[in-house]
Structures are given as structure tokens and as C-alpha cells.
UniProtKB/TrEMBL annotation:
Native organism: Denticeps clupeoides
Compartment(s) where it occurs, according to its Swiss-Prot or TrEMBL record: Cell projection, Cilium
Organism lineage string: Eukaryota, Metazoa, Chordata, Craniata, Vertebrata
GO biological process: cilium assembly
Top-rank lineage group of the source organism: Eukaryota
GO cellular component: centrosome; cilium; intraciliary transport particle B
PROSITE patterns (alphabetical): WD_REPEATS_2 (PS50082), WD_REPEATS_REGION (PS50294)
Domain IFT80 second beta-propeller residues, every copy: 300-588
Name assigned to this protein: Intraflagellar transport protein 80
């Protein structure tokens, strides 16, 4: 990606240009110390004077009133705030008429910004004061007062905090009076410009120490640039938070959100005092110290998928290259390309008015449909559907261009959703809530309604990143999430009335991604590149999980890598310096997943024997146990030396009834309550009591015995034996109470147990014979 810049031969302003602001994607206003406001029309290249201001007005900052608020068009969108050196701010209409001038500060007003929904205006002055005003220009409060000038301010994404400069310090102050103020030394020189992005929640700062820095909203440093030749005079985030621009003397730089540079331009502009992005994020304008306004638009963006590479070569033109045969196709669009995504054999491109869907099999005839809203800020793809996010909402489309659903939840702000807070699979959509980052809303893609009972998934800490697995049935859908402690958790999306069981599967995880065709999860954790070959093992047998991991040294990926994709056997990683690295993963786990999903257990067994890999055997053990394939699980557990589990599986195979077998398989996976419920539902009360006796859950065993008025003496007998073995006396009040009135007779107890087991065998004697014959046949075939 790079910037294609353009400057007029003759400067249009006679003095330095102090501020610029876009009204639409093709119209810009600029203000200069020559007291003129100019309108730039990029469609026809014309520049016209909007108004000549009074000679005592020297503008310092310009900010247009937000056009939309939570997807709704604003009524006041045709005005902007203009701050000036005479201590006033002016509300100016699009025609240049000054609607209102307000005395705001002693000395110059250095910055003025509307908040995201246009309900408040903040101004910062040379007098060190920061004031908040209503949209009609009435003073609401003085937020801060300090001894040094405030050169720049920015609103937090939810407009509840304000970031401002104080010499070399950055300060984040909440609007709530009693809330804690965050302050830190950010630079070695006076900070001149800051910006805070609403989508990625990251902060930019540029200062007289000739450096720019990227911070998170807690004030932690994420990136620091090398020293430039001149002070950094402007910084600005693109609306989608993926890139930002930095301006300095004769310098314009385009950077990724993690800090590394895409492009560096050295135009003859003098200092770039302000940078403004168009609403669609495709172009920017800079206010230059020599009277010019510099325009730049993004070109040469690249998208890759398997053997195809796509490049945006002009505003409205893409080039598709098949690297296998070097065939080239050129795609032309009616309007400027705003967003694109390439995955799952489809290219989805959005312009300002339309959406184009191309299949890799046919680049000549795209499917085209019109967009209701304007700017699309995010595209996500799954195998069957894709997702568009714009200011108005979230929309799921099929690749035939049909609107499938439009999920919503109370208080949803579509304008601040990003790839880390949204995830899409063939049947499920997950959205992290911005107001409470511990909450994840889950929707059915087909209906757009919340899954299950409608309650969202709630984690104990703020969630940083979410990702849904991409293959398998909807009933088995899993979501991986990384919280702010960088711990990785896995949980099932469809919980069927049960509470979400969120299980930790990794620590110090910096980045993660699911495979596009199999449920393999890749990530970088604690400096190691890790692949979880069967993450769902944690729901079947927790002890298996470490054995299903493949790891290798991740030092080559640098300190803060980001996994872009995991397609087939190739993982693509973006390093901190912007370079791309590819890492290959063994194809065997994906093949094993395919065999298990299609119940080709014999093929799976042959693959494991061929590969002679303990990780594969561990995966097979988990898959077989999860699919209730006990004979296969027995062989796999034997191969990894889990003798105790082989014995337990053998004991399950010998159980007389289907319900008992199912209950003990649930026990094997640690689901005690489900195992108990299965046995009680089948009327096997003694077996349910015996489960708790075996697990030493004495209170629950006695509770069941008393409730069902059976085997109270059995529980007491086993409890006495347990205490005798350890040489202890009974101290539990309930057991003392019942032992007084119940006689323990081991012969009677043994007779009752035999009778219970006999009843269970009588339920289906024919089934036992069939099972015995089948198991003998399976064992023989496996041994052969």
C-alpha cells in the first residue's frame, strides 16, 4: 500500500494553511491565515472561495459536525466549528455564514472538536483551559485548567473521556467528576498533536521530540517511531482504525495501526499542520505551511488467497493475478473502491454505492447489488456468507447477493466494530459489546435472532479478541476468545440450557486464528508458535489437550506478531516491522479432522499408524471419545500410554445398559451433573448414587439416597469403610443423624446391589449379547 499524492502547481492560499476538513468524499474545505475559506471539488478539480473572513480571524482548527450518529443522519450536519487566535470559536455554515461566535478562551483557541454523536463540543486554549459546550455554543463546564497551553484534544470512542496534552504529558480525564484521571509522560518534547480512534481504541501522539507514538487507552506504549528530522506537526487515524497518517516538515507518512510504515512521501509543502481523512478512508488531505493543500489517496493495497493475488492499481481498478499460470484479469468499477475482502473462493468489493461479488472461477461477471447506507467499514467472510458493517448496522449476505439477516442488540454501535470484536461462521455471528467488553452476543446467521435463551456469553474479564471456528456442524460450534490478560479460552456457542463452560487453553497469547477448513487453532503464545490440533479435547478429556499441541520457536515472528490468515497448511503472520512471514503446518491433523467428521475411523487409524505421531494419536483419542467410538478410543489411548483410561474405557464397554455407558462417558469427560441426570432419567438411582460414592461426593450420594428412599444403608456403609481406612471418625452431622436409625449389614447391601445390577441387565439382555459379539469383532479387526 502507498500514497499517491497530488499538489497544484500554484498555491491557492497566500499564507500558511492551518486546517482542513472533508464535507463529502469528494469535497474539502480549507482555512488559511490569509483569512479565506476555500472549497475544493475533487470531481471537477475546481477551487472556489467560500468566504473572506474578518482580518482579525486567524483560524487554528476546523471540525465538521458529525453527519451520522449511530447510523442516523444528523440534522445539523451542514455546519462546522472554526477556532481562531482571537479566543473565539465560530459556528460556520456550509455557505460560509458565521452562525455564532463565542468568546471561549483568553488567548488563542488551539483546538475544537465535536464528540462522536454531536451532542458536545470541546475546546482547548492557550490559557490552559479545556471547556465543554453544547451544540448550540452554550458553556457546560470547564473540564481542566493548567499552567501550559493545550495544543490538542481528542474524545474517547464512547465520548465519556477526553484526551489532552500538557507539555510533555498526556492526560485522559473522564467527564464524571469523581473518576480517576490517567496521566503519563509521553514524549521528551512538547506534544503538538493527538488523535484517538473510535474503532481500535488506540491513541496517537506526535511531538517536538520528532517522534510519533502509539498507545492503548490505558497509557501503555505500543510503538515508538525513530527520530525524524523535524517535529511531528500532525497525526490522524483513518476512520476504520487500520492505518494512520503522520505529517512533518516536507513529510507525509502512512503507517499501519501497529506503527510500521507503508509509505513515506517527501512533498514540497513545508510543515503539514493538519491531516484529515475522508469519511470512506480512501484519501486524505494535508494543510501545508507554504499555502498548499496536499491530497493523497491509497493505492496498491493487496489481498491474497491461495494462488491469487489482487492489487488495487487505481481508484476504480483492480488487477487479479493467478500465480500458478500468471494469468491476469483487470476488474473495473464504476465508483471508487472503499473496502475489499478475499477469502473462501470469493472476492467482495464495496464502492460508495454498490457491492460486487466475484467468484475465483469467473472474474468476468460479478454479482452486483446496491448498498443502502454509504461507507462500509468492515467486511468479514465465511464459507457460505459474508458480513458487511456500516454506520447503520450489521448485514449478513449470501454469495448470491441475498440479504440473509441483520442482527441487532440493544445499544449496538456498528460504527466502532472491528475484525477483533466481530466473528462470522456459516451458522453463527459473534459480536463483542463495546459498552461492556466482557459480554459477547451470539446470533443465528439465518434468522438474525440471539441464540438459545437470548442471554449473551459473559466472561470474567474484558475480551480483546474473538474468533468462531469455521467447520463442523452448528451444534458443535466453538468460540475462542482472548481476554485483556492475554489468556486464551474456548467455549461452546450452543449450550442447550446449560451455563457456558469457558475453559482456558492458553496463556500469554498475542494473536490467534482458526483454520479455514478444519477446526485447528493457531496462535503465538509466550514466544512460541502453537497449533491446537484438536482444541475441543478440553471438553472430552482435559489431560489430552497438552498432547494435541504442536509448537515451534516463534522468535522469528518478532515481539508483537499478528496472524493474518490460516488457509490450508499455511499460516501468514505480519511481523512488528510490517514484513510478512509464512509458516507451514503439518497436513495430517486437518486430514484426521476430515476422517473423524465423516466417521471414517479405519482411515483415521491407518493415518495415525502411518504418521507415527503422538500428537495425532492424542487427537484421535479425543475425537473418538467425543463421538462415542469406544473401540477406536481404546486403541488411541493405548498408543499414547494412557493405561488407566484404557481400563476405564474397557469397563464402560462392559456396562449392561446404554444409559450407564453414556453416563460413564460423560463422567470420563468430567460432566458429573449430566451423568447423574442421565442415570436418574433412566431410573438407575443406585448407579447414580454409586457414581457419587466413587467420586467421594458423600453429601450428594446421601442426598440422592434419602430423596429416593433407597440405598441409605449402602451410602453409610461405604462412608464407614472410607473413614476406617483412613483411621478417622465421623464428623458430618447428617451422616451421624442417619447412622443412628439405619443398620449397616454388608450382606444385605451386597444382595441389594446384585439385585439392582440384575434389573439393569434384564432391561435389554439381547443388547448385551449383540454388544459382546460386536466388540469381539471390532477388537479382532483392530488387532489385525
Amino acid at each position: 500500500m502507498r500514497l499517491k499524492t497530488s499538489l497544484l502547481k500554484d498555491r491557492t492560499h497566500r499564507e500558511l494553511v492551518s486546517c482542513v476538513g472533508w464535507t463529502t468524499a469528494d469535497e474539502l474545505y480549507s482555512c488559511s491565515e490569509d483569512h479565506q475559506i476555500l472549497r475544493w471539488n475533487l470531481l471537477n478539480g475546481e477551487t472556489s472561495v467560500v468566504v473572506n473572513m474578518q482580518d482579525d480571524i486567524y483560524p487554528t482548527d476546523l471540525h465538521w459536525f458529525p453527519k451520522t450518529s449511530s447510523g442516523k443522519k444528523q440534522a445539523l450536519a451542514e455546519i462546522f466549528v472554526l477556532t481562531s487566535t482571537d479566543g473565539k470559536f465560530h459556528l460556520v455554515s456550509k455557505t460560509g455564514r458565521i452562525e455564532k461566535s463565542v468568546e471561549a478562551h483568553r488567548g488563542a483557541v488551539l483546538a475544537g472538536h465535536w464528540n462522536y454523536d454531536g451532542t458536545a463540543l470541546i475546546t482547548a486554549g492557550e490559557d490552559g483551559q479545556i471547556k465543554i459546550w453544547s451544540k448550540s455554543g452554550m458553556l457546560r463546564s470547564t473540564l481542566a485548567q493548567q499552567g501550559s497551553p493545550v495544543y490538542s484534544v481528542a474524545w474517547a470512542p464512547d465520548s465519556d473521556r477526553v484526551l489532552y496534552t500538557s507539555g510533555k504529558q498526556l492526560i485522559i480525564k473522564p467527564l464524571q467528576p469523581s473518576s480517576k484521571v490517567l496521566q503519563w509522560k509521553a514524549h521528551d518534547g512538547v506534544i503538538l498533536k493527538v488523535d484517538w480512534n473510535s474503532v481500535n481504541d488506540l491513541i496517537l501522539s506526535g511531538a517536538e521530540d520528532c517522534r510519533f507514538k502509539v498507545w492503548d487507552s490505558y497509557g501503555r506504549l505500543l510503538y515508538v517511531s525513530s527520530s525524524h528530522d523535524y517535529p511531528i506537526t500532525s497525526v490522524s487515524w483513518a476512520p476504520d482504525g487500520e492505518v494512520f497518517a503522520v505529517g512533518s516538515f516536507n513529510t507525509l507518512r502512512l503507517c499501519d495501526k501497529t506503527g510500521w510504515s507503508y509509505a513515506l512521501e517527501k512533498p514540497n509543502t513545508g510543515s503539514v499542520f493538519a491531516v484529515a481523512w475522508s469519511a470512506d478512508g480512501t484519501q486524505l488531505a494535508g494543510a501545508c505551511g507554504n499555502g498548499h493543500v496536499i491530497f493523497a489517496h491509497l493505492v496498491e493495497q493487496r489481498w491474497e488467497w491461495k494462488n491469487f493475488q489482487i492489487t488495487l492499481i487505481k481508484k476504480r481498478t483492480m488487477q487479479v493475478r493467478n500465480v500458478l499460470n500468471d494469468a491476469v484479469d483487470v476488474l473495473e468499477f464504476r465508483d471508487r473502491v472503499i473496502k475489499a475482502s478475499f477469502a473462501h473462493s470469493h472476492l467482495v468489493v464495496t464502492t460508495s454505492l454498490q457491492c460486487y461479488i466475484y467468484s475465483v472461477k469467473n472474474w468476468n461477471t460479478p454479482l452486483i447489488f446496491d448498498l443502502k447506507e454509504g461507507t462500509v467499514s468492515l467486511i468479514l467472510q465465511a464459507d457460505r456468507h459474508f458480513l458487511l458493517v456500516d454506520g447503520g448496522g450489521v448485514y449478513v449476505f449470501s454469495y448470491e447477493g441475498r440479504l440473509v439477516s441483520s442482527p441487532k442488540f440493544p445499544g449496538m454501535r456498528a460504527d466502532i466494530l472491528n475484525a477483533q470484536s466481530v466473528s462470522l461462521s456459516n451458522d453463527t455471528l459473534a459480536l463483542r459489546d463495546k459498552t461492556d467488553e466482557k459480554v459477547i452476543f451470539l446470533f443465528d446467521v439465518q434468522t438474525g435472532k440471539a441464540l438459545g435463551d437470548g442471554k449473551p456469553l459473559t466472561h470474567k474479564l474484558e475480551v480483546v479478541e474473538i474468533a468462531l471456528d469455521q467447520s463442523g456442524p452448528a451444534s458443535d460450534r466453538k468460540i475462542a476468545l482472548v481476554d485483556k490478560n492475554r489468556d486464551l479460552y474456548l467455549t461452546s456457542v450452543r449450550r442447550l440450557g446449560r451455563e457456558h463452560s469457558i475453559i482456558k487453553i492458553g496463556t500469554m497469547v498475542q494473536t490467534m486464528a482458526w483454520n479455514d477448513a478444519a477446526n485447528l487453532l493457531s496462535g503465538v503464545q509466550d514466544g512460541q508458535f502453537t497449533v491446537w490440533c484438536y482444541p475441543s479435547a478440553v471438553f472430552v478429556d482435559k489431560d489430552l489437550l497438552p498432547k494435541t499441541l504442536t509448537t515451534k520457536d516463534g522468535s522469528e515472528f518478532s515481539s508483537t506478531p499478528h496472524i493474518l490468515s490460516y488457509v490450508g497448511t499455511q499460516v501468514t503472520v505480519r511481523r512488528a516491522d510490517g514484513s510478512l512471514m509464512h509458516s507451514c503446518v503439518s497436513p495430517y491433523p486437518a486430514i484426521l479432522h476430515e476422517y473423524a467428521s465423516t466417521a471414517r475411523w479405519e482411515d483415521a487409524l491407518r493415518l495415525c499408524r502411518f504418521a507415527k505421531d503422538q500428537t495425532l494419536w492424542a487427537c484421535l483419542a479425543g475425537m473418538a471419545m467425543g463421538s462415542r467410538e469406544l473401540a477406536m478410543a481404546e486403541v488411541a489411548y493405548a498408543a499414547i500410554g494412557e493405561v488407566d483410561k484404557v481400563q476405564y474405557i474397557n469397563s464402560i464397554k462392559e456396562l449392561p445398559s446404554k444409559e450407564s455407558s453414556l453416563a460413564h462417558m460423560l463422567l470420563f469427560s468430567g460432566h458429573v451433573q449430566e451423568a447423574e441426570a442421565t442415570l436418574l432419567q433412566a431410573g438407575l438411582v443406585y448407579q447414580a448414587i454409586q457414581v457419587h460414592i466413587n467420586l467421594y461426593n458423600w453429601d450428594r450420594a446421601l442426598e440422592l439416597a434419602v430423596k429416593h428412599k433407597t440405598h441409605v444403608d449402602t451410602v453409610l456403609a461405604y462412608r464407614q469403610k472410607f473413614l476406617q481406612d483412613f483411621g478417622k471418625k465421623e464428623s458430618n452431622k447428617r451422616f451421624l443423624q442417619y447412622s443412628e436409625g439405619v443398620e449397616v449389614d454388608w450382606e444385605k447391601i451386597q444382595a441389594k446391589i446384585e439385585m439392582e445390577l440384575g434389573k439393569e441387565r434384564e432391561i435389554c439382555p439381547s443388547k448385551i449379547k449383540i454388544l459382546q459379539t460386536k466388540k469381539k469383532h471390532q477388537s479382532n479387526s483392530l488387532l489385525n
